[in-house]
Design brief:
four-stranded mixed beta sheet; 8 helices; 20 strands
């Protein structure tokens, strides 16, 4: 996987001793707003598709996660790409663009999706599934997205498990979610009618501002005010697991739940418990700190966070001389060896992902701002 590439001097599976006992310095995530995503994955500049969690009444338990009609192939979780994040920046130009030396720049050191950060943080405990990231640096901002999208083998047992889990989770969402406070959950809603809402967040890391988006769910609360929202999540686990099964679950599922909560500043999530007949008997609200304590023998948050910091540090150092929206460096993670290697693709190439319209938008913002400065100086 990493032939003809330069290997970084870090290894996800070889953790420095200091990374096991200290937490890196990161600011608390800030929620900056959000946008809707259509069922086809397109950006919508509104809040209409925000979804709230509503736990069914006690007399509605247990309920089945199986489809009553002919079983249809469940969609996998919708893939996030950076285009929608760039569209959000365009829609909020005054908030996210700044003029430096008569040139417009995005007011962030790194722009990415939460998936990118989640992959980095889970890498120390990932030994099976590798990934590749595309990285571009343009006008002092580093853009990162995932570039290794491939169709899974339909007969692979792991893929079949993922499809079934996605189906269960989709049916759970139909029971427990409703859009923007309007109406109630509809268990008969078809999978094709699904949509989502992405929150936009930022945090500071070693003096650098990280700007990213992530699918989110909201929780209704009497303490909500001034347009603020309480973000949460809804997940599913088996109710009866032996010790080995719990350990596997903690390393493959619970770690991902915690990482997402950590990045978004979520303090509690809802976990549904299903039995061997796919019946949900209860849904429990769980504090994220308790979720971490349940897993402390299987993985360490210190290790997760420190590897993300180290890898982002390597990436930004390597990309520092670059200022081209077409040039892309790919960073590939070999899950078997724990190694990360990179390769440069100069100029416009098959991996180029910062769209032309975004570059034009930034240039137009520069021209408008320059003209405003000129007119102001003329009046003076």
């Amino acid at each position: 996987m990493i032939s003809n590439c330069t290997v970084l001097n870090i290894n996800a599976h070889n953790v420095p001793e200091e990374d096991k006992h200290r937490f890196p310095t990161l600011s608390k995530p800030k929620s900056l707003g959000g946008y809707s995503v259509s069922p086809l994955g397109f950006f919508e500049n509104n809040m209409d598709r925000m979804r709230y969690i509503v736990i069914p009444q006690a007399n509605n338990f247990p309920f089945s996660l199986r489809n009553n009609e002919d079983r249809q192939r469940a969609k996998s979780a919708q893939e996030e790409d950076i285009d929608n994040m760039l569209l959000y920046i365009e829609s909020k130009q005054q908030s996210f663009l700044k003029i430096i030396n008569m040139r417009a720049e995005v007011n962030a050191d790194i722009v990415c999706t939460s998936e990118v950060l989640e992959l980095m943080m889970s890498a120390p405990y990932e030994s099976k599934n590798g990934w590749a990231l595309g990285v571009t640096r343009y006008r002092n901002t580093t853009y990162i997205c995932r570039v290794d999208r491939v169709e899974p083998n339909p007969f692979d047992s792991d893929n079949l498990t993922r499809i079934m889990q996605a189906d269960w989770l989709s049916n759970l969402h139909k029971r427990c979610l409703f859009d923007n406070g309007m109406g109630l959950p509809n268990a008969n809603q078809s999978l094709e009618e699904s949509s989502r809402f992405n929150g936009v967040f930022s945090f500071e890391l070693n003096g650098k501002r990280i700007l990213f988006d992530s699918p989110v769910l909201a929780e209704q609360s009497p303490y909500q005010f001034n347009g603020s929202y309480i973000w949460t999540d809804l997940q599913l686990r088996t109710s009866n697991m032996n010790r080995d099964e719990w350990s596997i679950h903690n390393r493959t599922e619970a770690i991902k739940w915690w990482i997402k909560c950590f990045l978004l500043g979520i303090e509690s999530i809802y976990i549904a418990y299903r039995d061997e007949n796919d019946l949900v008997h209860c849904i429990k609200k769980t504090a994220v700190r308790d979720l971490w304590k349940e897993c402390e023998n299987d993985w360490s948050p210190y290790v997760c966070a420190n590897f993300m910091v180290r890898l982002l540090g390597c990436i930004t150092q390597i990309m520092a001389p670059v200022d081209c929206p077409s040039t892309v460096y790919t960073f590939e993670f070999d899950a078997n060896q724990g190694k990360v290697a990179y390769k440069a693709f100069e100029g416009r190439n098959e991996h180029t992902f910062v769209a032309d319209w975004f570059r034009v938008m930034v240039d137009e913002f520069t021209a408008d701002a320059t003209e405003q400065i000129r007119r102001a100086s003329t009046r003076d």
